[in-house]
Amino acid sequence: MASSSLALSSLLLLLLLPLLASAKGGFSVELIHRDSPKSPLYDPSKTLSDLVLENARRSIARADHLRRAFSLAASDGTYQSPVVSDTADYLMEVNVGTPANKFFAIADTGSDLTWTDCEPCEGCYPQDSPLFDPTKSSTYRDISCQADACANLPHASCSNDSSTCQYAYGYEDGSHTSGNLASETFTFDVAGGRPVKIPKVAFGCSHDSQGSFSNATAGLVGLARGSLSLVSQLGSVIDKKFSYCLVPYSEKSVSSKISFGADAVVSGRNVVSTPLIQGLNDTFYTVSLQSLTVDGDSILVNSGDVIVDSGTTLTMLDPRLVRSLEDKLTKIIDLPTVKDPEGVFNLCFDVSKSRKVQFPDITFQFDGAALTLSSVNTFIPYDENTACLAIVPTEELGIIGNIAQQNFNIGYDLENQKLSFSPADCTKF
Fold this sequence. Notes:
Elements: H1 2-22, E1 26-33, H2 48-68, E2 79-80, E3 90-96, E4 101-108, E5 115-117, E6 141-142, H3 148-151, E7 156-158, E8 165-170, E9 176-188, E10 196-210, E11 219-222, H4 230-234, E12 241-245, E13 256-261, E14 272-275, E15 286-294, E16 297-300, E17 305-308, E18 315-317, H5 319-332, E19 337-338, E20 348-350, E21 362-366, E22 369-373, H6 375-378, E23 379-383, E24 386-389, E25 391-393, E26 398-400, H7 402-405, E27 408-413, E28 418-423
Parallel strand pairs: 2-8, 4-11, 5-10, 17-26, 18-25
Antiparallel strand pairs: 1-3, 1-13, 3-4, 3-9, 5-11, 6-9, 7-8, 8-9, 9-10, 12-13, 12-27, 14-28, 15-16, 15-17, 15-21, 19-20, 20-24, 21-22, 23-24, 27-28
GO molecular function, one term: aspartic-type endopeptidase activity
Family: Belongs to the peptidase A1 family.
InterPro entries: Aspartic_peptidase_AS, Pepsin-like_plant, PEPTIDASE_A1, Peptidase_aspartic_dom_sf, Plant_Aspart_Prot_A1, TAXi_C, TAXi_N
């Protein structure tokens, strides 16, 4: 199996070399927040409070399903995906096939398999964009049951003629997707450069998908650590590196960026790095959190394994740790506290009478890396008069959410198994 994977990476490298050379060895594409005007999910009628509550509730739902992901299979043999359908916050525009079929897909660091709905799809949820028709693509190939990629599925079956590999993924909310495992050319539009075509990407060609998926999206791009993720499939082609820089939520005119290969190198004087470790599930990007420091006082972490997840909005940590942090912040911040009427946030402050509110920095001490977060990363404006702590309690599984990651260039180096952070103005990437 290892030799087959090496051969595939070598073939991809030969096919991609001219394109990567024109892109100076790497490439970057837009990462579009679901609430951005560029997103097909954008709803201009929603207020700030509406968006904050929706993002928070998606975070809680996603964290709940991530915790349950460690039971490997449902009773019917369908694999239970680590994420709940349609909970991730960022989208990528993807072109699949030859000629290319364009659609928006969820970009998810918590999922491995990339999939999209395909014709014929009598059991698929309604969608705004045309479905991909594999019969009209010259580069589409079904993957056989004997292929390594098929063996890498958590659960696989064979078609009636025992030749084509088939997948079935279920989600904890009852949604599901199933179809053929296939290979196809994926094309990504590069800002200011030539499109980058990636041949022979293994993906799920879904012929049956139902549930809480959005009509505006047609699949998912898996960016996790597993062998079937886009990152793992590219392997040495991108030096096993990718990065992203997330713009603050307040920036509506500029998109975030996700970069691969040479474009994903995170460097500079202020870079800090921490090892990626094997956590509860090898799909996730897990690191060791040791303490939090605020106003010079440190709070030690009892259970320190947390995952870094681009699809979860809020940071979610051990309840005892969060309570200690809330106590310290309440003593330091000279503002009246208010209750969140929806009961989502534990600690909120009335900022209506303050011209310029200054919240203290919070330093997250990871193994070998001290990451200092400003108020942009730790507080979220609930409405014009209220700001709430974007760190909430959760049992069992700690998550560093995407608010905490804003305005950092974050590099995932799978060759050296490390995660790097560099402070950045992500609007200028």
